[in-house]
Amino acid sequence: MTTPRTVLITGGNRGIGRAIAEEFVAAGHRVAVTVRSGEGPAGTLSVVADVTNAESLNAAFAEIEAKLGPVEVLVANAGITRDTLLMRMTDEEFEEVLDTNLTGSFRVLRRATKGMIKAKFGRVIFIGSVVALLGSAGQVNYSAAKSGLVGMARSLTRELAGRGITANVVAPGFIDTDMTSVLPEETIAQYKKNIPAGRFASPEEVAKVVAWLASDDAAYISGAVIPVDGGLGMGH
Fold first, then answer.
1. Dihedral over alpha carbons 109, 110, 116, 118 (to 10 degrees)
2. What phi, psi does 17 have (nearest 5°)?
3. Are 117 and 160 in contact (CB under 8 A)?
4. How are beta strands 73-76 and 30-35 bridged, if at all?
5. Beta-carbon count within 10 A of 30 CB
6. 3-state SS, residue 75
7. What pTM was computed for the model?
8. Residue 90 — φ and ψ, nearest 5°?
9. Residue numbers annotated as active site
10. CA pair distance 97, 139, nearest whole angstrom
């Protein structure tokens, strides 16, 4: 049985983040989620925070620590896309995606590790993407941000693995969420052709891998990129 922990998931009110929050609640953990609007799933503490704003994160952490205790497991999931081809991509479209997906993860990480170092225990799980290492046309900004998380996890491992803190990246492929449900049928069929498993994943399939990485069983895994992509990114 895994020890109950205080878990924080950024962007935990929809899609993969919500499924991760539900998985941790079901396993008996104390779960907080950051939201920009809306609520996390039943059984979670929802705190309004924006990962691009350090002050709002400090306030969120203060509330979580007061109500649930210091954060022991951090799942950095909050992310946005601004897809467009390189020649049309504006500075703003590049910088916005980096600021939320990469710098936002750094801001949350920096704040969370204070308590982890003190406790000599921590699990950091970044939600990356298959495109981090595979690449994707129209996603120069997004894949750059997601591949940056790999360097972050590995550098963090070199800094803090000796203090009982692990850092890993879970790299989902195509997942059945609101983001993919709006794609045209023929686009979905084309994507599925490229996936050896021949289907998209459910958000729950990603959530179970994240929960396992946070468990006592995964204490010796750090600096890894774990794909949940049906074989799409093999060799990367």
1. 180
2. -60, -40
3. yes
4. unpaired
5. 21
6. strand
7. 0.96
8. -85, 165
9. 142
10. 10
Q: E-assigned strands of the chain?
A: 6-10, 30-35, 44-48, 73-76, 122-127, 165-172, 225-228
Cβ atoms of residues 233 and 168 within 8 Å:
no
pLDDT of res. 1: 59
| Distance from C-alpha of 47 to C-alpha of 56, rounded to nearest angstrom | 10
Q: In terms of Cα–Cα distance, which of 167, 175, 166 is closest to 206?
A: 175
Query: In this predicted model, what pLDDT tens digit does every residue of 158-212 receive, in sequence order?
Result: 999 999 999 999 999 999 987 788 888 898 999 999 999 999 999 999 999 999 9
The predicted-structure confidence for 70-107, as pLDDT tens digits, reads as follows: 999 999 999 999 999 999 999 999 999 999 999 999 99
Domains of the chain listed by start with CATH number: 6-227 (3.40.50.720)
